[in-house]
């Protein structure tokens, strides 16, 4: 799931202070689950903004809605009528949602209300951590199910580096060394021979290095 | 007892309308029996109505009692007979004919509207008994403003018309023509199946003591002091001394007045409650006092033996600065200067001391009034040597006459929760006798169908309460009422003296019908205590009970802004405006009837669990008892006899045989609860026995009787020397090796081992009597044996005090030690040495001993798993927490689950039996009820919005939401407790709590801020 966190209030206020009518649009997908951009956050943000602008004496009308997903055009189309009433939209969806909404409504500024962070998991209620960098070519089969791209600070394909100490990463003592985790896991699985032979250099063209990516599934095309 | 099967009468007479009688009546009436409540005075409520606050929660006594009074007054199956006395009882258990004499009220209850005009016009003033004579009432009067029935009465003894043949001012001025001097005494013959005697006690008259009571006005009894503290008391809650109405700066409490004293026409027993009420009164007095108030309690032993009482005592001393002085006072004399009172006493080291106080409160004990004793004799009910009803420790609510039961203070001195539990126990005993006649005498209420109001605009009625003076003395209620009339959707407003009174309910009904109201707002006290009452009133008019809203202008306004009446009035308007705004958005909420599985699961096969099961079975319900050990009996297996000398093992054998022989009971030993799900009325338990068999039990109620354990001392060489043993060890030792014990030269008991310390601040309640019981037993074995009891306070509450006296007269030595100087025990080969500091000698004393007996604490059993399975709360010490410390002592707050025995806290076998019967009564009452509902205030998921994020699943404290087969959250309405956490946490706003929907909350905020922002 895509993880996001709320932008600082000041930043959102700066984004919208020139407008008079703003719609806050949440997304019922990933950002709802990571408690950053669901309907509840929409209501909280709208309420906080109303209070701010009321205190400032600035007239500001704030609308609230949340779409099933902002990454599908059918759902975004639901705003077709109402969006005309607004000068701008603050989308609490991930970056994909913000852009996709903007692509559909090119006359209205669509502004981000959250910072999209990573693909990750709910480690415990209120704690989300990264697990995947969407590199386009999954290595997990040979790394004991632990991703060296997402979990190693240096994205090393053949780790660990010399900065691993007591299971922690030299970047930050709070970060577990990804390669230590891989080593422990492979040991548990009896697959330590993986370390006998280095893997080939990773082909990064499936990742960001190859430019914006696209997937086509022919059978699904209409 | 032989019962004539099939011929018993399905009604019960309860004599006495105090809290015990009320509880017994309600339990029975809610279980399918018709109840006649016979109350001697003009209204029910008893002594509890006179109390200001109650320990250890400092709840307002009247506030928690009042809803019960009203429930009783409104109950379809309770006939309340006031000014009435039971005169005679003929017949036998199951079919009695009771003769009840009813004195005339001289007021027609049908006509009286309780306007108070008769009292206003009545020229005769007399002492007001309810305020203990501290102020005056008229000869036309109501007992107290919240009493039930709230109908005036004319006091024949003091009425001028009855004295002189003329006056009748009341009759002339009564606007309702309710005064009726033609009323005559009537005698009723009533057929009932059982009788419960709950006539209560009276306060000991302390005139015989040299305390100047009656001579110096500032010497008052504790009950008088309760009235002084009470908002409805003579000084309206202002703490002033009677002599000059000035606030006192120093108050002393003198304990054991009329108790623990064989002289001065006093009583040998301990009244059991005075230590705690004195501590409470000292704390409350400090809170009432604008200036710093010094409080001192003069006592012999501080008996804070109840659940959480010791912590209350500690807080009083350490946080509130209440002084505790261990000395019995012989004289109170007037001070020559400034009218104070002098108390001479002896310090612990023997030095004389003297101190002056502004007020002295006598902690007077309780006694059975002679008229109660006379009644008992008339009914053929045996009394003990103190005139309490004679009962057996194993049958604590049965009197000597079959079919006649007792509870409350007539049974023996006790506090409110034990009275309430005992009342339920007595109800249980009565219900068992009449099990076959259940439902034969009751009436069923036909509620009007709910009106469909969906198309109607809101029509709101607002009722604003004075709450006597609670609200009216601060808030301008008239102004608030007028203000409410101008609010949107409001069609009618009313101002009431007591909106909760029974006749106001009638008035509200009339107004609802006359004005076709579809929403009601009451601006009064707390919905916590009073909402159900008003909702019932609405329901009887065909309105859904959720179309109701309360504004708390008492607790949240009048009480906290006493010094700013004008601003309080403005705030009351704000609160009313908010309530009216919300009312306009309220919607009917549907509740559905619930089918109840007619079976109970009892967890624990000790004395409490076995009694609970047996009493449930005898009421006609099935029961399953599960016991984790192979043998039934629990902790009592290790107790040979009670302090009264009753054989516990014999009792247990009989009890177990009766349980095993009862066709309604299934017993599973070596069994543990391995799964528990469902909800009130509809539980499914999985029980695993040692042979790995799994039993699935479907049941409607659950009774927790999982017991407690004896602390295994780490102190005093326990485990390291064979001569050091616990009381349970000693019990077994005396039983098995009596001749060896008889050979001991000296035995030393050490009290409070593992109790009343930092680790376990509680008093274990039972170990003082344990020590005395065993000390007497040792003296019986060998009268020459030296027996020494080293104690901190001897807590021989109630009638146990007799045994303390016996032990002393038998030569048992009692020596008090301070917590800071505990005794020391050293081994000496086969023998032992005990060193302790005697407080009189003030020096260490070393004695040899053959045995050292430790009063090891009673501590909670390991019930963590059980608590998690059943989702029931425990306190920091591991004992389960009842729903309300005073008035719901055997209920859990989750419905359908009940509590008894030592799982609740340390207690004696007789107390456990009483509680077990009470739990069986409460459970039986639930099983027998036909009006249980589910739904109502529960959370509902809009599944189209649900993101299946699991936030509700993770946050629900009751574990109710789950992701269903459709991949969305589902909340079972029968399990949902309506706390609203999921609704507030749901990030998709897919969950709303019925009756607390966002718009219904937000409109209140908007109404509050209207005009401000």
Characteristic terms for this protein:
heterodimer; A: 222 residues; alpha/beta; Rossmann fold; 2 domains; 9 strands; elongated; B: 1013 residues; FAD/NAD(P)-binding domain; 5-stranded parallel beta sheet; 52 strands
What is shown here, in short?
Chain A is of the alpha/beta class and 222 residues long. Chain A is 27% helix and 23% strand. Chain A folds into two domains: 2-118, 3-Layer(aba) Sandwich (Rossmann fold); 134-210, no CATH class.
Radius of gyration of chain B: 30 Å
Helix percentage of chain A: 25-40%
What is the domain tally of chain A?
2
What structural class is derived from the secondary structure elements of chain B?
alpha/beta
Give the number of helices of chain B: 26
Strand arrangement, major sheet of chain B: 5-2-1-13-24
CATH topology of the largest domain in chain A: Rossmann fold
Describe the structure.
The complex is a heterodimer of chains A (222) and B (1013). Helices cover 27% and strands 23% of the residues of chain A. Chain A is of the alpha/beta class and 222 residues long. Chain A folds into 2 domains: 2-118, Response regulator (Rossmann fold, 3-Layer(aba) Sandwich); 134-210, no CATH class. Chain A is elongated. The chains are: A alpha/beta (222), B alpha/beta (1013). Chain A binds chain B through residues 28-29, 32-33, 35, 38-41, 43, 54, 66, 122, 125, and chain B through 945, 947-951, 954-955, 986-990, 1013.
């Amino acid at each position: 799931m895509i993880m996001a966190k709320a932008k600082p209030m000041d930043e959102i206020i700066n984004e919208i202070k020139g407008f008079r009518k703003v719609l806050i649009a949440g997304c019922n997908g990933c950002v709802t689950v990571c408690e950053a951009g669901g309907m509840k956050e929409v209501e909280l943000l709208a309420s906080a903004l109303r209070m701010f602008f009321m205190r400032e004496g600035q007239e500001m009308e704030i609308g609230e809605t949340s779409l099933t997903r902002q990454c599908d055009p059918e759902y975004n189309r639901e705003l077709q009528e109402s969006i005309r009433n607004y000068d701008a939209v603050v989308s609490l969806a991930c970056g994909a949602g913000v852009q996709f909404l903007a692509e559909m409504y090119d006359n209205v500024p669509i502004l981000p209300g959250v910072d999209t962070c990573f693909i990750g998991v709910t480690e415990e209620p209120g704690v989300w951590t990264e697990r995947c960098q969407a590199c386009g070519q999954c290595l997990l089969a040979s790394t004991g199910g632990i991703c060296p791209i997402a979990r190693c600070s240096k994205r090393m394909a053949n780790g660990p580096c010399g900065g691993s100490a007591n299971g922690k990463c030299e970047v930050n003592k709070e970060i577990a060394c990804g390669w230590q985790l891989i080593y422990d896991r492979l040991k548990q699985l009896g697959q330590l021979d993986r370390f006998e032979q280095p893997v080939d250099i990773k082909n990064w063209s499936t990742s960001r290095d190859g430019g914006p990516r696209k997937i086509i599934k022919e059978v699904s095309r209409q | 007892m032989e019962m004539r099967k099939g011929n018993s009468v399905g009604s019960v007479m309860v004599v006495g309308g105090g809290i015990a009688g009320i509880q017994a009546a309600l339990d029975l009436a809610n279980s399918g029996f018709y109840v006649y409540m016979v109350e001697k005075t003009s209204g029910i409520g008893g002594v509890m109505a006179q109390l200001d606050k109650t320990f250890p929660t400092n709840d307002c006594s009247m506030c928690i009692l009042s809803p019960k009074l009203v429930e009783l007054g409104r109950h379809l199956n309770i006939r309340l007979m006031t000014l009435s006395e039971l005169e005679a009882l003929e017949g036998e258990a199951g079919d009695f004919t009771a003769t009840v004499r009813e004195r005339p009220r001289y007021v027609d209850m049908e006509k009286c509207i309780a306007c108070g005009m008769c009292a206003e016009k009545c020229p005769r003033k007399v002492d007001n008994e309810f305020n203990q004579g501290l102020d005056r009432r008229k000869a036309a009067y109501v007992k107290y403003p919240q009493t039930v029935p709230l109908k005036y009465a004319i006091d024949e003894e003091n009425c001028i018309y009855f004295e002189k043949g003329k006056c009748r001012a009341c009759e002339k001025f009564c606007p309702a023509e309710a005064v009726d001097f033609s009323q005559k005494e009537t005698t009723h013959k009533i057929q009932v199946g059982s009788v419960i005697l709950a006539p209560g006690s009276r306060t000991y008259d302390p005139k015989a003591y040299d305390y100047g009571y009656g001579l110096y006005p500032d010497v008052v009894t504790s009950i008088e002091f309760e009235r002084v503290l009470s908002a409805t008391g003579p000084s309206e809650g202002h703490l002033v001394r009677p002599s000059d109405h000035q606030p006192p700066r120093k108050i002393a409490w003198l304990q054991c007045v009329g108790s623990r004293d064989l002289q001065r026409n006093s009583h040998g027993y301990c009244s059991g409650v005075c230590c705690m009420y004195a501590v409470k009164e000292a704390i409350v007095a400090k809170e009432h006092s604008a200036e710093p108030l010094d409080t001192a309690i003069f006592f012999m032993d501080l008996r804070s033996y109840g659940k959480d009482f010791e912590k209350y005592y500690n807080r009083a001393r350490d946080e509130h600065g209440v002084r505790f002085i261990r000395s019995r006072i012989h004289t109170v004399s007037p001070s020559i200067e400034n009218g104070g009172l002098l108390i001479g006493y002896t310090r612990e080291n023997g030095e004389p001391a003297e101190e002056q106080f502004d007020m002295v409160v006598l902690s007077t004990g309780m006694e059975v009034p002679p008229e109660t004793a006379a009644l008992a004799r008339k009914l053929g009910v045996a009394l003990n040597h103190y005139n309490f009803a004679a009962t057996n420790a194993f049958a604590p609510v049965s009197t000597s006459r079959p079919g006649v039961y007792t509870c409350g203070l007539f049974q023996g001195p006790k506090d409110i929760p034990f009275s309430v539990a005992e009342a339920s126990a007595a109800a249980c005993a009565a219900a068992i006798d009449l099990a076959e006649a259940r439902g034969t005498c009751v009436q069923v209420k036909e509620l009007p169908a709910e009106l469909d109001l969906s198309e109607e605009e809101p029509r709101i009625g607002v009722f604003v309460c004075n709450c006597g003076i609670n609200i009216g003395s601060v808030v301008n209620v008239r102004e608030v009422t007028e203000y409410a009339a101008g609010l949107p959707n409001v069609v009618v407003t009313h101002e009431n003296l007591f909106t909760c009174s029974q006749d106001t309910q009638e008035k509200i009904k009339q107004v609802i019908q006359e004005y076709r109201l579809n929403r009601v707002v009451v601006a009064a006290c707390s919905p916590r205590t009073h909402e159900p009452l008003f909702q019932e009133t609405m329901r009887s008019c065909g309105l859904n009970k959720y179309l109701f809203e309360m504004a708390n202008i008492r607790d949240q306004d009048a009480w906290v802004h006493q010094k700013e009446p004008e601003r309080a009035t403005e705030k009351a308007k704000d609160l009313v405006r908010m309530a009216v705004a919300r009312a306009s958005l309220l919607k009917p909420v549907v509740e559905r009837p619930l089918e109840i599985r007619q079976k109970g699961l009892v967890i624990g096969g000790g004395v409490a669990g076995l009694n609970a099961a047996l009493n449930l079975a005898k009421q006609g319900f099935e029961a399953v008892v599960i016991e984790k050990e192979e043998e039934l009996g629990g902790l009592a297996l290790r107790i040979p006899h009670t302090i009264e000398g009753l054989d516990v093992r014999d009792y247990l054998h009989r009890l177990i045989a009766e349980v095993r022989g009862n066709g309604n009971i299934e017993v599973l030993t070596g069994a543990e609860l391995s799964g528990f799900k469902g909800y009130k009325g509809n539980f499914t338990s999985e029980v695993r026995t040692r042979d790995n068999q799994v039993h699935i039990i479907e049941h409607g109620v659950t009774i927790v009787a999982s017991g407690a354990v004896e602390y295994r001392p780490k102190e005093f060489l326990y485990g390291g020397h064979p001569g050091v043993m616990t009381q349970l060890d000693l019990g077994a030792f005396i039983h098995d090796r009596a001749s060896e014990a008889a050979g001991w030269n000296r035995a030393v008991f050490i009290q409070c081992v593992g109790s009343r310390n930092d680790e376990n601040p509680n008093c274990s309640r039972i170990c003082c009597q344990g020590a005395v019981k065993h000390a007497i037993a040792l003296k019986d074995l060998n009268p020459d044996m030296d027996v020494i009891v080293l104690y901190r306070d001897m807590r021989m509450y109630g009638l146990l005090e007799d045994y303390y006296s016996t032990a002393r007269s038998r030569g048992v030595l009692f020596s008090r030690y301070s917590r800071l100087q505990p005794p020391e025990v050293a081994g000496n080969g086969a023998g032992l040495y005990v060193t302790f500091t005697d407080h009189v000698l003030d020096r260490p004393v070393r004695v040899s001993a053959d045995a050292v007996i430790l009063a090891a604490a009673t501590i909670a059993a390991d019930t963590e798993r059980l608590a998690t399975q059943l989702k029931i709360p425990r306190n920091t010490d591991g004992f389960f927490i009842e729903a309300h410390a005073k008035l719901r002592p055997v209920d859990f707050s989750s419905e359908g689950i009940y509590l008894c025995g030592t799982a609740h806290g340390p207690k004696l076998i007789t107390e456990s039996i009483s509680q077990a019967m009470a739990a069986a009564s409460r459970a039986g009452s639930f099983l027998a009820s036909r009006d249980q509902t589910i739904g109502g205030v529960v959370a509902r998921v809009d599944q189209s919005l649900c993101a299946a994020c699991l936030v509700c699943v993770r946050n629900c404290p009751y574990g109710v939401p789950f992701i269903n087969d459709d991949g969305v959250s589902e909340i079972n309405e029968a399990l949902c407790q309506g706390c609203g956490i999921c609704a507030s946490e749901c990030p998709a706003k897919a969950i709303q709590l019925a009756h607390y929907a966002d718009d219904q909350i937000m409109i209140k905020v908007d109404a509050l801020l209207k005009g401000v922002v």
